[in-house]
Amino acid sequence: VNLAHISLSMLGGYVMVWAMDAAGVPFLVSLLLAFGACAAFSVLLERLVLRHFYGADDLTQVLLTLGLLFMSIASVAFIWGPAFKPVTVPSWLTGQFSVAGLQLERYRLFLLVAGGLLTLVLVFTLERTRFGAMVRACVDSRRAASGSGINTDGVFALTFALGSGLAGLGGAMSVNLLSLDPNFPLRYLVYVLIVVSVGGMGSITGSLLAACLIGVADVLGKYYLPELGGLFIYLLTVIVMLWRPQGLMGRAA
After folding, report:
1. Which residues does the chain have with pLDDT short of 70?
2. Is residue 204 domain-resident?
3. Which of the chain's ends, N or C, has fewer CB atoms near its CB within 10 Å?
C-alpha cells in the first residue's frame, strides 16, 4: 500500500518542467527523463526504506507512505519554491481541430492515445510475458516464488521502479491540465485512492475502467448539476463499494 506514488507523479512533473526550462530539452524527451528520474529515485527509496515494510500490516504501510508524502511536499517547496510552475507544450499539441463537427483539444487526445497505449503494454506485460508471471507469482505467494528460484527482492524492486516511473510519466503529462505546485499530492491523492478502490487492487484494466467511469460521472455531474460539485464521484464510489467491496475487477480476499 503506497500512498507516496502521487508524490512521484509530482516529481515527474517537476523534472519535466526543469528539463524543458533549464536545459532546453524537447517535450517528448523530457517525458522520458521524468520516467527515468522517478524510476531511479524509487529504486533508492525501495531499497533503503520500503523493502523493510513488505511484511508489515496495511496500516503501518499507509502511515509510512503518508509520512513520505508530506516529506515530499516540504522537499519540493524547499528545492523548487512554493509557486505554481507553468508548463509549455509544443505547438503541435496546442489548439483544437474539428472532427465531425466537434472541437477537440489536441493535448487531451494525446493523453487519451498515450494512456491507451500504456494500458495495452502493461496488460500484455503482466499477462503474457515471463516477467509478468514472475510478478504475479511473487504477489500471490512470495515464499513459494522464492522457493521456485525467483529472485523476489529483484522482482519487487524492478516492479516498483516501473510503477514509479509510470507515476512520474503520468504526472509529467498531466500537469499541463492539473497545474503543478508542492500541494499537488494533497489535491489528487483522494482521486487516486478512489480509482484504485473502485477498479480493484492489482487490476490495471479495472483502474482504467474506474478512471473512465469516475471522469465521465464528474464531468456530467458538474455540467448538468454544478451546484452539487463532485458529489457524483463519491456517490459512484459508495455504490460500487456496496456492490463489490473488492472493486469492479478485483479479486475477493
Report:
1. 251-253
2. yes
3. C
Domain assignment present for 125? no
pLDDT of residue 33: 96
pTM: 0.89
Q: Which residues lie below 8 Å from residue 189, measured CB to CB, with a gap of 6+? A: 3, 6, 69
Q: Establish if 99 belongs to a structural domain.
A: no
Q: Is residue 24 part of a domain?
A: no
150-174 pLDDT, tens digit per residue, is: 998 889 889 999 999 999 999 999 9
User: Grid coordinates standing for 138?
Assistant: 511473487
Residue 146: strand, helix, or coil: helix
Q: For residue 210, how many other CB atoms are within 10 A of its CB?
A: 24
Question: What is the domain range of residue 214?
Answer: 183-253
Please answer whether residues 54 and 156 qualify as being in contact, where contact means their C-beta atoms are separated by less than 8 angstroms.
yes
Rounded to the nearest 10 degrees, the angle between the axes of helix 184-199 and helix 5-22 is: 130
pLDDT tens-digit readout, 236-250: 889 988 998 888 887
**Strand 96-99 versus strand 102-105 pairing type:** antiparallel
d(CA 126, CA 131): 7
φ, ψ of residue 58 in degrees (nearest 5): -60, -40
Task: Write down the residue that cell numbers 533549464 correspond to.
Answer: 22
